[in-house]
Design a protein that fits this description.
Layout lengths: L14 H20 L2 H17 L1 H5 L4 H15 L3 H5 L6 H9 L6 H15 L4 H12 L4 H8 L3 H30 L1
Helix pairs in contact: 1-2, 1-4, 2-4, 6-7, 8-10, 9-10
């Protein structure tokens, strides 16, 4: 099953044609996963290097783009650099830029503030929780598809999503109380 962002690749497309056509979408996806443009570029570069080596097998898959996107997800989830695990940076304006490219918010100041707050909240989540939210809300995948991508059960996906959303809600409530205390 393809989501709205996944376009089937026509048979006979070379790796170079695929990479040229899909690089911007893969980078946007990786930025949303990692929260950091430079780390996203590293992840996508690593994945494309591996995909180039096995392009013949990938191009024979039902959906080469879905295959490569899964590689991006797996690379993000298995990233071994300790600084990356501890330092997911807010991208603020860069997220607003992505939103503008998709025809979204037009008030730049509001979008920067909202994007910065969102990235700060997402940075508090564990990798799998964050990945579940990105796959569910950005990629618009169903729990069954997410479970397949992450190699876990649908119940585990729902558990990760529930915990992540609870963490985000608690973070929002804490910020609201703190703001109210500062005002009084």
């Amino acid at each position: 099953m393809h989501n709205a962002r996944t376009k089937p690749v026509i048979e006979g497309v070379t790796f170079e044609q695929f990479a040229t056509a899909r690089l911007p979408a893969l980078l946007r996806y990786a930025v949303v996963l990692t929260g950091d443009r430079e780390l996203a570029q590293d992840v996508v570069q690593e994945v494309l290097a591996r995909a180039h080596v096995k392009w013949r097998r990938i191009s024979d898959a039902d959906s080469p783009e879905a295959y490569v996107r899964r590689m991006v997800l797996n690379e993000y989830l298995s990233w071994r650099r300790s600084w990356a695990a501890r330092n997911v940076h807010a991208v603020g304006e860069r997220l607003a830029d992505l939103d503008d490219l998709r025809g979204g918010v037009h008030d730049h100041a509001d979008s920067v503030v909202e994007a910065d707050a969102l990235w700060n909240k997402l940075a508090t989540l564990g990798r799998k929780q964050r990945a579940v939210l990105v796959l569910r809300y950005y990629e618009q995948l169903e729990d069954e598809q997410i479970a397949d991508l992450l190699g876990c059960s649908q119940a585990t996906v729902r558990s990760h999503a529930s915990r992540a959303l609870k963490t985000l809600r608690l973070s929002s409530e804490h910020q609201t109380r703190k703001f109210a205390e500062e005002k009084s």
